[in-house]
């Protein structure tokens, strides 16, 4: 049995330096203007999280995951070597990398991520789950328009955010994430599919929402930069047709205090948390408490 890194709720390596005092955290704080943008638009992009050595460590571990018989493959919550619904494209999508390798474990505790997440959530940050989204060069598949929380209704209340960290430069040409500004103020929409038809979401939008949908914003990023978005913000990404990949690690988190809203397992292989009980324990660690640096 491979080592399960979910048993460790602190940094496993020296890849990230955890500040030792309040002054050390200052460089990771978002500005008031950035926080306002997030709450007005439902997303914030261009936040630097990863340095070059951290990107390379994550890329190295990621390459192992592309091999079908990689060590620890029994620990994934989900593993799709290709989740694309088109035979002509590939979308690698997997959940649970933090359990398999130390760098993917430690990225949960990246200071730039936990500080920003705490400011945007307005409290302590607890881990929900991670994801990998990788589009190979020339034939990378789409991630269809959706709201993340539509897949997360097994937890409540809605106090969730997603942090999408680029392991490559992400542009419109290779399928960067695109957002519908202000859509986090919409109600929860029905699920219309994650890796298929980019037009399917039109079926569940009213006229006002469809009009707003005509003005998406492409969150182009340099490798190491991140975009944060609210659990209700509508987003998606188009195909990668150019000669370089678009790889990303996604960390999903929620404000401490969110509870289970289901009596069955919340992630594949994870013991159930009874409905109404707080999300915590081995698989949902507390990542950051701002009170500890006051």
UniProtKB/TrEMBL annotation:
Classification via InterPro entries: Phytyl_CoA_dOase-like (IPR008775)
SUPFAM superfamilies: Clavaminate synthase-like
Species: Blastopirellula marina
Coiled coil: none
Record-given protein name: Phytanoyl-CoA dioxygenase family protein
Needed co-factor(s): Fe(2+)
GO terms, molecular function: 2-oxoglutarate-dependent dioxygenase activity; iron ion binding
Keywords noted in UniProt: Dioxygenase, Oxidoreductase
Protein origin, superkingdom: Bacteria
């Amino acid at each position: 049995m491979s080592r399960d890194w979910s048993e460790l709720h602190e940094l496993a390596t020296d890849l990230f330096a955890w500040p030792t005092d309040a002054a050390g955290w200052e460089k990771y704080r978002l500005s008031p203007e950035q926080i306002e943008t997030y709450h007005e638009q439902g997303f914030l992009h261009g936040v630097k999280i990863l340095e070059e050595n951290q990107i390379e460590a994550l890329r190295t571990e990621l390459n192992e995951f592309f091999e079908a018989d990689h060590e620890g493959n029994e620990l994934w919550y989900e593993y799709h070597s290709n989740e694309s619904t088109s035979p002509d494209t590939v979308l690698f999508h997997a959940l649970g990398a933090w359990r398999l390798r130390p760098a993917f474990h430690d990225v949960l505790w990246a200071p730039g991520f936990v500080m920003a997440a705490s400011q945007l959530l307005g409290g302590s940050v607890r881990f929900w789950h991670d994801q990998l989204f990788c589009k190979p060069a020339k034939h990378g598949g789409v991630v269809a328009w959706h709201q993340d929380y539509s897949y997360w209704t097994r937890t409540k209340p809605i106090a969730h955010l997603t942090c999408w960290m680029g392991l490559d430069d992400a542009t419109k040409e290779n399928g960067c994430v695109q957002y519908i500004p202000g859509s986090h103020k919409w109600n929860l929409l029905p699920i219309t599919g994650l890796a298929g038809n980019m037009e399917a979401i039109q079926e569940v939008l009213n006229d006002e929402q469809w009009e707003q949908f005509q003005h998406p914003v492409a969150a182009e990023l340099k490798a190491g930069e991140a975009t944060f978005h609210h659990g209700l913000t509508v987003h998606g990404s188009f195909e990668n047709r150019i000669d370089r990949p678009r790889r990303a690690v996604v960390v999903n988190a929620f404000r401490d205090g969110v509870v289970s809203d289901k009596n069955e397992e919340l992630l594949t292989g994870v013991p159930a948390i009874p409905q109404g009980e707080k999300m915590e324990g081995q698989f949902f660690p507390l990542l950051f408490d701002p009170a500890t640096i006051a």
